[in-house]
Amino acid sequence: DQQVKQNSPSLSVQEGRISILNCDYTNSMFDYFLWYKKYPAEGPTFLISISSIKDKNEDGRFTVFLNKSAKHLSLHIVPSQPGDSAVYFCAATLQGGSEKLVFGKGTKLTVNP
Amino acid sequence: NAGVTQTPKFQVLKTGQSMTLQCAQDMNHNSMYWYRQDPGMGLRLIYYSASEGTTDKGEVPNGYNVSRLNKREFSLRLESAAPSQTSVYFCASTRDSRSYNEQFFGPGTRLTVL
Q: Of A25, A71, A90, B9, which has the highest C-beta tally within 10 A?
């Protein structure tokens, strides 16, 4: 049973436009959510996170929105740049810390020049 | 400051062979993790070590053993490799598993079991 779902395996956008990556979760006990970015042949790198007590968190071009009632979060990248082309993983953790991150399958973002 | 390092980067094994994947971090982190990533899948937790001297099973521990050698190093051992263990293995660390800190990942080890 997949607790964190990224239903879009891939997304293609034009440079300068907005990229929106979506993530749904089923476990209402999750209370902290993270996005990781992964380039080929590299390990994932942390991008941005949000606590369940918030509904929005911004860091430069990256904004994460959390809708707890819908068990849905999204990552917005504005404006998108070719260097943003990567696989993006959504992850969630239960109360108590990050000892057990549950990852989605990832969405491959391609930003076309 | 190298962050999280993993050796080897690539490995090919025959079914039944054993090997140890090495991981080290230089960030003075308390907690370390081993994940595997299969094609089209997210990362799945194999084992983790919340602090030096402790280890616990994750989601997919069967066929693996781990050793937290010291605060810096966390190794993953395959005693008798099987084709189902063909995967990319990532080691990660975080300052403290009891608080919300992001995990830092190594570059991965690509393992093929024939």
A: A90
ω into A79 cis (within 30 of 0): yes
Q: Single out the residue of A64, A68, A54 nearest to residue A89, CA to CA.
A: A64
Q: B36-66 pLDDT, tens per residue?
A: 999 888 899 999 998 898 999 998 999 999 9
Closest-CA residue to A64 (of A56, A12, A72): A56
Q: Cα(B91)–Cα(B94) distance, rounded to whole angstroms? A: 11
Q: What backbone torsions phi and psi does residue A84 show, to the nearest 5 degrees?
A: -80, -10
B-chain residues near A46 (CB < 8 A): 102-104
DSSP A44-99: -EEEEEEETT-SEEEETTEEEEEETTTTEEEEEESS--GGG-EEEEEEEEETT-SS
Q: Is-contact B22 B73, C-beta < 8 A?
A: yes
CB B75 within 8 A of CB B21: yes
Quote the minimal CA–CA distance from A33 to chain B in Å: 10
Q: Searching chain A, which residue's CA lies closest to the CA of residue B30?
A: A99
What percent of chain B lies above the pLDDT cut of 90? 81
Using the Cβ of B41 and the Cβ atoms of chain A, whether some distance falls under 8 Å is answered with yes
